[in-house]
């Protein structure tokens, strides 16, 4: 049995993305991968930390995503940090190009998951947060946690 819970097809997450950025819009994209990369990603050997996407010549590429080489892959393994092409419709690529042309916007992968046996990436259009925004987010989370704790204690009696 895989390490994922039944019904949860998430293979990798970029946990820092929602902490470091405001996510304005999320796109689903396929990825052009080789077989050994797919096997390695399915085994949970992908890392989205510090990765980003960029639009080049009308195509979108995912940069800096680390996929560990597959143990039984031998000569078929590719470079772990190579750029991987994202598969999107032309209209979506134009939308992403419009966002990235604006100052302060970047494309950040949020998670890798399986959908009908294919590896997909959730690509977020993101604006960077300042330190005071991050502190505000942490304070909101702590307040919500306290409220939930109080409600749970009250419901016990």
Main attributes of the structure:
157 residues, alpha+beta, seven-stranded antiparallel beta sheet, two-stranded antiparallel ribbon, 4 helices, 9 strands, 33% helix, globular
Tally of DSSP β-strands: 9
Strand content: 35-45%
Helix coverage percent of residues? 25-40%
- Helix- and strand-based class? alpha+beta
- Helix/strand order: EHEHEEEEEHEEH
Largest sheet, if any? 7 strands, antiparallel
Rg, nearest Å? 18 Å
Give average pLDDT, whole number: 82
Subcellular location: Cytoplasm
Main location: cytoplasm
Keywords: Cytoplasm, RNA-binding
Protein name: SsrA-binding protein
Write a structural description:
The protein is an alpha+beta fold. The protein is 33% helix and 35% strand. It has 4 helices and 9 strands. The strands form 2 sheets. It has a 7-stranded antiparallel beta sheet with strand order 1-8-9-2-7-5-4. A hairpin with a 2-residue loop joins strand 8 and strand 9 (118-128). The radius of gyration is 18 Å and the shape is globular. The model has no long low-confidence stretch (mean pLDDT 82).
